[in-house]
Amino acid sequence: MAYSTILRRLRQEKTNYKKRKLMLMSRQNFITVQISNENTLVQIHKPQIDGDMVIASAHSRFLIGKGWQGSRKNVPAAYLTGYLAGKKALSGGTKEVILYSGTRKYTQRMAAALKGVIDAGLQIPADRESLPADERINGQHLKVKNDVAKIKSSIDSEVK
After folding, report:
1. CA 23, CA 70: separation in Å to the nearest integer?
2. How many domains does the chain have?
3. For residues 6 and 24, what is the distance between their CA atoms, to the nearest angstrom?
4. CATH number of the domain that 66 lies in?
5. Which of 70, 76, 155, 71 is nearest to 121 (CA)?
6. Radius of gyration over alpha carbons of the chain, in Å?
7. pLDDT tens digits in sequence order for the chain, 160 residues long
8. Which residues are within 8 A (CB) of 4 and not within 5 positions of it... i.e. 6 or more apart?
9. In terms of Cα–Cα distance, which of 52, 72, 158 is closest to 112?
10. Domain assignment of residue 3, yes or no
11. What is the 3-state secondary structure (H, E, C) of the chain?
12. What are phi and psi of 118, to 5 degrees?
C-alpha cells in the first residue's frame, strides 16, 4: 500500500479546497470574516493567480478610537466592523462580493459582519432570514451598551 500525501492546509483544516475552487472559478471578489479571541477582522479580497489581493480591510480595534466599550468580538462590534469594511470597499470601486467562510462555521457574528457589509451598500447574495435581528445589532441584549447609531454615523462621515 502506497502512502499518499495530504495537502498541508487540508490536513491542518485551514482550507476547504472544493469551496475555494468554486469560489475562484466565479471570479468574483469575496469577503472573509475572522473572529479571534478578542477581535473581529473583515477583509474583502480580489482573487488573482499569484495570490489573493486585499481590497479593503477593517479591524475591530478601530472601534476603540470611536469610544467603544466592552467586547470587540460581539454581534454589534462585528456589524460595525463589516460596515466599515463595506464603506472602504465602496470607496475603492467594489460593488459586488460573495461570502467565503472556508472551513469556519457560519455564526451569528459572521452574519452580523455580513449584514454590516450589506448595509454599507455592497451587493451580496444572502438570505435576509439568516441575518441577526436589529435588537441584537444594536446590542440591547448586552450588559455594556454602546451607541451603534452614533459610531455608524461617524464611520459615514469619515469614509466617503
Report:
1. 35
2. 1
3. 21
4. 3.30.420.100
5. 155
6. 17
7. 788 888 898 889 888 889 889 988 999 999 999 999 999 999 999 998 888 999 999 999 999 999 999 999 999 999 999 999 999 999 999 999 999 998 899 999 999 999 999 999 999 999 999 999 999 999 999 999 999 999 999 999 999 7
8. none
9. 72
10. no
11. CCCCCCCHHHHCCCCCHHHHHHHHHCCCEEEEEEECCCCEEEEEEECCCCCCEEEEEEEHHHHHHHCCCCCCCCHHHHHHHHHHHHHHHHHCCCCEEEECCCCCCCCHHHHHHHHHHHHHCCECCCCHHHCCCHHHHCCCCCCCCCCHHHHHHHHHHHCC
12. -65, -45
How far does CA 119 lie from the centroid of its chain?
Answer: 13
- What does the block give as the cell for 123? 451587493
Query: Residue 127's domain spans which residues?
Result: 15-158
